[in-house]
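Suppose you are handed only two things: the residues of a chain and a line of SMILES describing magnesium ion. What would the bound structure be? This form records exactly that question and the answer produced for it, so the two can be stored side by side and reused later without any lookup.

QUESTION INPUTS
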Amino acid sequence: MNTSTQALNTTVPAGRERPAVELRNVTKQFQLASGRTVTAVNDLSLTIPQGQFVCLVGPSGHGKSTLLNMLAGFTPLSQGQILANGEQVTGPGPDRGVVFQRDTLFLWRRVADNVGFGLAARGVPAAERKRIVDRYLRLTGLERYGRAWPKQLSGGMRRRVAIATVFANEPGILLMDEPFVGLDYARRADLYEVLGTLRAQSNCTVLFITHEIDEALVLGDRMLVMVGGEIALDEPIDLPRPRTGREITSPRAQELKAAVIARLDATQIQDEA
Ligand SMILES: Nc1ncnc2c1ncn2[C@@H]1O[C@H](COP(=O)(O)OP(=O)(O)O)[C@@H](O)[C@H]1O
Ligand SMILES: [Mg+2]
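ANSWER OUTPUT
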């Protein structure tokens, strides 16, 4: 059970919950060495309710990672304000878990010690830590790999370890930047299931960046397309759950996909002009 959500539910009347995430007129500009200024995120406002799974797609270089890194607290804003569960974001925090595309496992720690690292750092006692680590190893299908070293695992298994690690910290908000890039379809499908199982247990809010529209349609509640540092499309992914992959061939799914592709194609034409 996610403790932060639990606490929220007991203190805030139903229907009056604070949004999980609020961005208010957020702008991020980078000053390049050449003196040129790049606006990566442009006056962007966005509200994400508690428990929503938001997928963010868009062409490369249009501000997706910058947005996620600001929300994670890694990148300072140029203008505007970001709130996570009503609190202003001023840096990284345990309320927000991050999974990147690149592998961030500690290669010199066994799988179980990777998964328990954040808990140990927060001073969670050993017995409690073991209970939590065992639970997340089981939920991610890694129960037999606790004593393995990361380099003994395949790419898909390592991604499972990264996911178990972030969920073991029970963040209310999960930020994922193209976490499944480079995996084949079967490995991805396994990970969709793992992610679904873990989310069903925790009810955390997710911001998930992907290049794959189909991936967004399988996972998400809401589709955002980001172009030129702004939200160019914001559509509910109102497909029935559980999603096995077949739902994404339905007429509604095809309609959504066509809307996203039309938006992306328009951008490509602008970029090439
Ligand atoms: N640290 C940085 N310094 C300078 N420019 C950056 C930096 N990070 C990102 N940018 C620029 O900001 C824009 C958006 O980048 P990014 O958020 O990584 O896009 P995406 O994740 O959509 O591919 C790009 O033009 C990129 O070159
Ligand atoms: Mg990126």
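WHAT STANDS OUT: The radius of gyration is 19 Å. The CA atoms of residues 19 and 49 lie 4 Å apart.
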